[in-house]
Write a structure and sequence with these properties.
Helix content is 49%, strand content 10%. It is mainly α. Helix 1 crosses helix 2 and helix 1 packs across helix 4. The longest helix is centred in the C-terminal third of the chain and has 26 residues.
């Protein structure tokens, strides 16, 4: 039984789970924002925040402890030099998890996890309206035809209004009175000398 056993198993063995979280945290430090499943994002937050706290104090011991988890020299260097400076005096809470909705393939809950100090503006997440049974019901043929006709007329009116707004009529100018028109003769036919 798992009495009082905290943490996320992620459907993996312990070694596979450690490798997954190590790779995700490396990607998060590199890119500052990643998209993954909600459960992995929550597990990653518990994994990476203590590492960022350690990176605030740049000592050889802390670098070795963080390297033990991340296993990538470039990521450790970026964490200690760039991310630790940006974190500064923040007392924890270095990451933010934003829900995105369900993935179309397997309906898994998706989320964005990002470093808070790098992305101050929250992205607008698209909320899909949940369909009800009533909204999927087919309408009767007469009603559908009336709706299509009214939609078409509304679209035509909108197109007419926008075209008038984009291209207003030019003001009336009496150009014909100011500029005399010259009568021009129709062009004469040219004769070709082909063998005369």
């Amino acid at each position: 039984m798992r009495h009082a056993k905290k943490g996320y198993k992620l459907g993996r063995t312990a070694s596979h789970r450690r490798a997954t979280l190590s790779a995700l945290s490396g990607a998060l430090v590199r890119h500052k924002r990643i998209t993954t499943t909600l459960t992995k994002a929550k597990a990653l937050r518990l994994y990476v925040e203590p590492l960022i706290t350690r990176a605030r104090e740049d000592t050889t011991h802390n670098r070795r402890e963080v390297f033990r988890h991340l296993m990538d020299k470039q990521v450790v260097t970026e964490l200690f030099e760039e991310v630790a400076e940006k974190v500064g005096d923040r007392p924890g809470g270095y990451t933010r998890v934003l829900r995105l909705g369900q993935r179309s393939g397997d309906a898994a809950e998706m989320a964005i996890i990002e470093l808070v100090d790098y992305n101050e503006s929250e992205p607008t997440t698209r909320r899909r309206r949940r369909r009800t049974r009533r909204s999927r019901r087919r309408r009767s043929g007469a009603r559908r035809g009336a709706d299509a006709a009214s939609t078409a007329s509304v679209a035509e009116e909108a197109a007419l209004v926008t075209s008038q707004e984009e291209y207003p009529e030019p003001p009336d100018l009496d150009i014909a009175e100011e500029v005399p028109q010259e009568e021009s003769d129709p062009p004469a036919k040219e004769t070709s000398d082909s063998g005369d």
